[in-house]
Amino acid sequence: MLKKTVKDIELKDKRVFTRVDFNVPRSQDGSISDDTKIRAALPTINYLLLHGAAVILASHLGRPKGRVQENLRLGAVAKRLEEQLDQKVVYVGAVTGPEVTRAAKELQPGQVMLLENVRFHPGETKNDPELAKAYAALADIFVSDAFGTAHRAHASNVGIAAYLPAVAGFLMEKEITNLSRILHSPQKPVVAIVGGSKTADKIGVLTKFLQLADTILLGGGMANTFLAAKAFQLGKSLVEKDQLQQAAAIMETAEKHGVKLCLPVDVTVAFDLHDATGARNVSVGAVPADMMVVDIGEETRKLFAAHIREAGTVVWNGPLGVFETDAFAHGTIAIAHAVADSGAFSVIGGGDVVAAVEKAGVAEKISHLSTGGGATLEFWQGKELPGIAVIQDL
Ligand code: ADP
Ligand code: MG
Questions:
Q1: Are 142 and 17 in contact (CB under 8 A)?
Q2: Where are the domain boundaries for CATH 3.40.50.1260 in the chain?
């Protein structure tokens, strides 16, 4: 990697402001339902502690829009982190102010402190320089380890770097290294899989994959739009009508560049996204007018899996069906198994597809599961992410 990491800077007796991603999924009652993100930050935190730093952690949680929202406080996160680290985590329940300043000053090497949800402060998402300065005043070094917010220029992940030396944490390093492998001389053949529902958001990444991939497999709501552009009748399916021309243009470019773009040949149809009553497998030319496409079909799963078996590299964004409904998760799960069983270097990114792959129980066999949603898509498009740009070059 061409960026400095925590290994390239003297940490002993330094206060280190570390931006992490503790934006954990929560249950209805507000308790943490999945602490993967907290565990993912431990290698960096432990390294900093082991090397004699005092660690000040900052994260956002949810979308409080610049005001204090009681159910989005980080108290429960601080507690879970205490359990994981097996040591006290100082938590004063404020983003800035005299209490925060005092606690940071008193923090000794080997100790940890967690600020309150940074998005409680209206200056955070505005990248307010005064707030960035206030963060910087707490510490000597800035460690950037929240890849998931790297596509946003906020005070705690970008603004602060104007006032402190900035280096990457291990999670950030892992993301940059693995995601870059897709962009720079990936092992051929490269198979890209794109699904999900937000076609408009993904046209950019698809366009990039047209340059990188030998084969592109389309599923999910995305494929519906492409099928509709080829004049298939899709009944009540989700079709993004304003994207039909884009879809047609992408199919044309694929043909010109010799990229094999595979659409489903059959699909699971149902009357409702959340109810499998009456669901069945039909060919793409036979979607009933009163039904909707909810998954890739059985034949398509086999065809897609055959491409994946031959792949040197697999890159995947977006689930191939409405995986939240168990009966419509079969296509995504079958493809997850195909990717896991292939010998390919595999990178999967996107909030929903990563959740689907975890549901399939094959996460361990994927080379890299990206922690970013929007950040991953932007990285794959070759954009410079502000949260990465501020990290010092090696
Ligand atoms: P990711 O988070 O992996 O980038 P998206 O957010 O683009 O993926 O899309 C995920 C959503 O797409 C899921 O909620 C899923 O139910 C939906 N989806 C997948 N296939 C279909 C379909 N055929 N019709 C409607 N929605 C779909
Ligand atoms: Mg999503």
A1: yes
A2: 6-171, 179-380
Give the pLDDT confidence of 249-297 residue by residue, as tens digits. Answer: 999 999 999 999 999 999 999 999 999 999 999 999 999 999 999 999 9
Beta strand 141-144 with 112-114 is unpaired
Does 34 score more than 90 pLDDT? Answer: no
H helices, E strands: number in the chain: 13, 15
Name 295's bridge partners: 268
Cβ–ligand 1 contact at 221 (below 6 Å): yes
Ligand 1 pocket test, pick from 206, 352, 370 with the greatest ligand atom count within 8 Å of Cβ, gives 352
Confirm or reject: Cβ of 220 under 6 Å from ligand 1.
Answer: yes
Where are the alpha helices (H) located in the chain, listed in sequence order?
36-50, 75-85, 98-106, 129-137, 170-183, 199-212, 220-229, 244-257, 298-310, 330-341, 351-359, 374-380, 386-389
Identify whether the C-beta of residue 32 lies closer than 8 Å to the C-beta of residue 115: no
Q: What's the rounded mean pLDDT across residues 300-317?
A: 98
Residue 12 has pLDDT above 90, yes or no: yes
What are the two backbone dihedrals, phi and then psi, of residue 294, each rounded to the nearest 5 degrees? -125, -10
Q: 28-42, 133-147, 291-305: which range is least confident on average?
A: 28-42
Give the three-state DSSP class for 45: helix
Which DSSP string do the residues of 152-178 spell out, in sequence order? Answer: S--TTTTGGGGTS-EEE-HHHHHHHHH
Summarised one tens digit per residue, pLDDT across range 106-148 is: 999 999 999 999 999 999 999 999 999 999 999 999 999 999 9
Q: Is 349 in the pocket of ligand 1 (CB under 6 A)?
A: no
Structurally, at CATH architecture level, domain 6-171 sits in 3-Layer(aba) Sandwich (3.40)
pTM: 0.91
Report which of residues 181 and 311 the model is more confident about: 311
Task: Assign 371 a pLDDT band (cuts: 50, 70, 90).
Answer: confident
- CATH fold of 179-380 reads Rossmann fold (3.40.50)
Q: Is 297 in the pocket of ligand 1 (CB under 6 A)?
A: no
Residue nearest to atom 10 of ligand 1 (CA): 196
Dihedral sign, CA of 209, 211, 217, 223? positive
Q: Structure tokens of 291? A: 């039904």
Mean pLDDT rounded to a whole number for the chain: 96
Query: In this structure, are residues 170 and 140 in contact, taking their beta carbons and an 8 Å threshold?
Result: no
